[in-house]
Amino acid sequence: MVDLNNPEYYINRELSWLRFNLRVLRESGVKAMPLLERLKFVCISASNLDEFFMVRVAGLYNQLENGINKKDAAGLTVEEQLKLIAKSAHMQMKAKYRYLFSILKELRKEGIMISRVGDVEESGKQWLEEYYREIVYPVLTPMAVDASRPFPFLMNRSLNLAVELINNEGQHSRGFVQVPSVLPRIIEVERCSQRTFVFLEEVIIIHCQDLFKGCEILDIVPFRITRDSDLDVDEEDMENLLKEIEISLRKRKRGASVRLEILKTRNQSIKKFLAEKLDLTERAIYEINGPLDVTCFFKFIKLFK
Fold first, then answer.
1. What is the mean pLDDT of the chain?
2. Has residue 36 been placed in a domain?
3. Pairwise CA distance, residues 99 & 250, whole Å
4. Number of domains the chain contains
5. Which terminal residue of the chain, N or C, has fewer Cβ atoms less than 10 Å from its own Cβ?
6. Does residue 106 fall inside a structural domain?
């Protein structure tokens, strides 16, 4: 008789899902596929992973907080699942950027340039300066953090800049600038001889001194937070179901942090500061040597259709 309680007959559902998402990501490496279609698979896998952390990983953290650490059908405790998920997700994140950089390199050969601002033609730089002054600057809101101003609430999946600085009183301080979601994340630069694009956050970084006048900026590091966004709805109360869903959707932006993505930097003080304020362990921190939140390429792809 087969023992259906034997963990050897089961695969943990979270690890199984990560394997599925890796197969989605690997589609972006199929050379026979058009470049932009390959890029789309990078975006899809990234979007999938966001939702995975917001719901499934967040659910596991909630179990731990409530003192639940029982084994699943595959014989893994909640803590063991979180460790294995982190290991797999870190590997998948590195693979995602390998595929992305490979595709961007091929796009350059096709005359589509995603450049650093410093590498843009002079005529394009002048256009970017005008774009910043007229479009970007009016919607920026710098936030300082010190003894009198607490750590701000940062929205789920928002892209932010952490600024380490010496304030006008000579004290070590930090500030934040949220990269505005109302503007295109990937900007097409006009007045260039080739189709040239730059990232919005880099334009803001170059002008950060304007936002913190009288301060000496020591470092600027982009980062992104993923929060618990699992919907907690009482489906039995059908009379107020719509109201419950509306409340839960609002909470999706304000849940507990479950992942921190941060640009890889030698300056570890900002990473440690954010980890402490967000109450995150090392395994929940993803240091990235590339643009954060590659789902922005969904809109980029549409520019060519």
1. 90
2. yes
3. 34
4. 1
5. N
6. yes
- What number of residues does the chain have? 305
Query: Cβ contacts of residue 19 below 8 Å, gap of 6+?
Result: none
**139 — phi, psi (to 5°)?**
-105, 10
- Angle at the Cα of 89 (from 199 to 232), degrees rounded to 5? 90
- Residue 161 burial by Cβ neighbours in a 10 Å radius (0-12, 13-18, 19+): buried
Residue 74 lies in a domain: yes
- Tell me: the pLDDT tens digits for 91-103? 999 999 999 999 9
Q: How far apart are the C-alpha atoms of 17 and 301, rounded to whole Å?
A: 26
The parent domain of residue 56 ranges over 9-110
Beta strands, E only, the chain: 112-114, 142-145, 159-166, 172-178, 186-189, 195-199, 216-227, 257-263, 285-288
Average pLDDT over residues 256-263: 95
Residue 173 contacts by C-beta under 8 Å, 6 or more apart in sequence? Answer: 144, 145, 146, 165, 166, 167, 215
Q: How does pLDDT run across 152-209, given as a tens digit for each residue?
A: 889 999 999 999 999 878 788 899 999 999 999 999 999 998 999 999 999 999 999 9
Statement: residue 248 has pLDDT above 60: no
| pLDDT at residue number 230 | 67
Q: Does the residue 86 lie in any domain?
A: yes
Check if the beta carbon of residue 198 is closer than 8 Å to that of residue 183. no
What's the pLDDT score for residue 90? 97
Distance of CA 304 to the CA centre of its chain: 24
Cβ neighbours of 149 (radius 10 Å): 11
Identify the CATH number of the domain in which residue 54 sits. 1.20.58.310
